Amino acid sequence: MLDIRLLRENPDSIKQRLANRGGEHASLVDQVLEIDTQRRSAETERQKLQGDRNRISKEIGIAKKNGQDTSAIEAEVRGIGTRIDEIGRDADASDVKQRDLLLSIPNLPHEACPVGHSAEENPEVRVWGTKPAFAFEPKDHTAIAGALGMIDFEAGVKITGSAFVVYKGAGARLERALINFLLDLHTMQHGYQEISPPLLVKPECLVGTGQLPKFGDQVYHSPEDDLYLIPTAEVPVTNLHREEIVSHDKLPINYAAYTPCFRREAGSAGLGTRGLIRMHQFDKVELVKITTPETSVAELETLTGHAENVLQLLGLHYRVIELCTGDIGFGSTKTYDIEVWAPGQGAFLEVSSCSSFGDYQARRMNLRFKDENGKNRIPHTLNGSGTALARLFVALVETYQQADGSILIPEALRGHFRAEKIG
RNA sequence: GGAGAGAUGGCUGAGUGGUCGAAAGCACAUCUUUGCUAAAGAUGCGUAGCCUUAACAGCUACCGAGGGUUCGAAUCCCUCUCUCUCCGCCA
């Protein structure tokens, strides 16, 4: 959520920066400002009337104590009360409307975020490693894992539906080894505290991180309980401190959480046609940071480095790209995507998206921190995948496939997998 | 699921219709004093909004949440949420 004061003071520069995202946001800004004017005038009027009522009511109390008749003055205050109700309804309605509008305006891209219209204009930041060479034609992960009995795509469809999958045997064990490897790396080497959150959350949490109200159709919902299945651990973990004022000496807060993630992927093309690449349910280890505004830019680099370290340790070729203003997410100010090379696909797959949200999420969830001077300020929130599991699985299987159809387990993972190869 | 108790400021805890945004204590901050590593005193010490300002100040709202009664609600009524205790059930 943007600060209404920023909008009041610099509406034109806000519109300009939002325009870099593409899409039509200027009229939303105008609407908010119009409502804001109405809201404030109603609010001022209401408060003046409330002040009148308080003062006169106090006089009634005193008069009654002195045994005086107060019926006339009571009638007067009754009239004020009616006015307060009327004006109050207007003020409250404007308030709700203003908040709704603010919640539907995306975040401002950071000054450092490259300006561009679409994914084609995302600059490549760096590349690590090289494409592995094969003495044979590398196979697709569905073929390799299928042959080894690691994944049963048909069973997933049978018990749930398309874009759900059943891991079996070495496949399930590889998935579990990866989870443990990632959690151990981030908690023991990178200094994150491990969190194991609920997978169902209240709607307020999704409002806090920005999925609601705009993207409700992408999230699974249980209407009986009004609970949502999390699309990412970012939601419960960032919301751990919703409505809180944390002390400055607690910052930065660093959390790592493994959870399954659930996404409806409504409107996504190609679902279920490419093995593990786009699923309704997938595992992910998520990194979340809450920082001071002064350190968030540097922390985004650190966070991205932690995610990259995963791929480096596993010996997987990857590149880092920065998303341009036309491609960054709704709440993000600046985003790096990490894409791992999958030889069987002949393509890079996005396994991590690392973003700084500035104060956008924190303002939505009323998260604040008390600084050294005792002032309440709004912290910055960041998150990044460290990393998504299904696509990491794909890259790993396709990169380490052998001519005989077996899969070599990279050195760093052997302690967790407890074997050197599959097949 | 059943029965009971409760929810007040960072914490403890008073307050059952009229200067209560809320006593007192603790904690915390600043200052003073004595002095020595502890104590005494003074002052300050919630959040948000509105209106203003150079700044201070002022006004309004908030005593779990929402609604109601009333000229006036922390206080009375209703609904909900949560916590605790006991019983039942369950992993």
Please indicate the count of domains. 2
Question: Can you say what the CATH homologous superfamily of the largest domain is?
Answer: Bira Bifunctional Protein, Domain 2
Helix content: 40-55%
User: Strand order across the biggest sheet?
Assistant: 1-11-12-13-16-10-9-4
Radius of gyration, rounded? 27 Å
**Low-pLDDT ranges:** none
Strand content: 15-25%
CATH topology of the largest domain: BirA Bifunctional Protein, domain 2
**CATH architecture field of the largest domain:** 2-Layer Sandwich
Structural class: alpha+beta
Please count the helical segments: 13
The coarse overall form would be elongated
Q: Main beta sheet, described?
A: 8 strands, mixed
Overall CATH class of the largest domain: Alpha Beta
Mean pLDDT: 91
**What is the β-strand count?**
18
Question: What's the end-to-end separation, in Å?
Answer: 51 Å
